[in-house]
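User: Let's play a game. I give you a shape written as tokens, and you guess the letters that built it. Ready? Here's round one.
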């Protein structure tokens, strides 16, 4: 059984599929990567080259997987940065095909729209298709706080407001919403993640590390999905994924690296020795 991972790829560094694929493989999962963009590196560096993959090319790759009969063995679809509204439409077509071949397949959508520091960094038509179509088709959605605000089109100043907004998303179709990068009750030196399902919510807080590094959301989505498919309950997968990403960020702070230390720290990423507590709220 495989995971269809539809997101960006870079030749240098660890974001998108360049983070997710290795993590999932290290957890014992077969991964079928489909790249929505291929860049030399992520755009946070002074220079980058590359391009968005045309939607027709994505359609062709999905059709090839289907023609060989492999989609019947698809356990999950994982989506990240899509690059264009046309690629989002191609993704939705692929998800529909996967569900015809394998009705039990899970669709986790990380709606990569932007963040507090950089604002919205996708086109308006891609944001619209996230709001109007992609979220409704997903089983699990993993926005950061800024992205959730963009999806529900309102500011969310408190955890209670975030929980209500997550419940609003649940009413549109998903079964689980996980919101990252929340202010923590313990103060500015901490950061929180909230998981909401129908009638239940769990919160986890970890120390905030004063460093900017890309790919944390991509790594988190992959780790949570990998743990979930390996039989962990949603809140158990949350503890492991958040703790694993925290270890990766700590390593960046220790070494001064601008890239997640996925290769050298994969053991701690997938099985962290320091496991933070998840609290039901």
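Assistant: Ready! My guess for every position:
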């Amino acid at each position: 059984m495989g995971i269809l991972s539809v997101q960006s790829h870079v030749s240098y560094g660890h974001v998108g599929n360049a983070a997710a694929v290795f993590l999932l493989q290290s957890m014992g999962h077969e991964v079928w990567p489909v790249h929505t963009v291929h860049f030399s590196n992520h755009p946070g560096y002074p220079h980058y080259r590359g391009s968005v993959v045309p939607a027709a090319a994505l359609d062709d790759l999905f059709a090839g997987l289907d023609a060989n009969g492999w989609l019947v063995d698809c356990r999950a679809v994982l989506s990240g940065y899509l690059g264009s509204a046309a690629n989002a439409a191609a993704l939705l077509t692929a998800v529909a095909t996967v569900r015809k071949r394998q009705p039990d397949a899970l669709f986790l959508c990380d709606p990569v729209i932007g963040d507090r520091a950089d604002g919205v960094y996708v086109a308006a038509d891609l944001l619209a298709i996230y709001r109007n179509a992609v979220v409704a088709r997903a089983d699990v959605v993993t926005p950061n706080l800024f992205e959730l605000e963009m999806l529900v089109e309102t500011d969310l100043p408190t955890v209670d407001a975030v929980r209500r907004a997550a419940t609003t998303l649940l009413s549109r179709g998903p079964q689980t919403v996980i919101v990252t990068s929340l202010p923590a009750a313990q103060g500015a030196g901490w950061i929180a993640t909230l998981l909401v399902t129908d009638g239940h919510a769990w919160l986890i807080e970890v120390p905030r590390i004063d460093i900017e590094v890309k790919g944390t959301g991509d790594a988190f989505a992959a780790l949570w999905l990998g743990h979930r498919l390996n039989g962990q309950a949603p809140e158990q997968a949350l503890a492991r994924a958040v703790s694993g990403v925290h270890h990766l960020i700590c390593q960046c702070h220790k070494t001064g690296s601008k890239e997640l230390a996925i290769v050298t720290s994969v053991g701690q990423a997938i099985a962290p020795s320091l496991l933070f507590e998840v609290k039901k709220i």
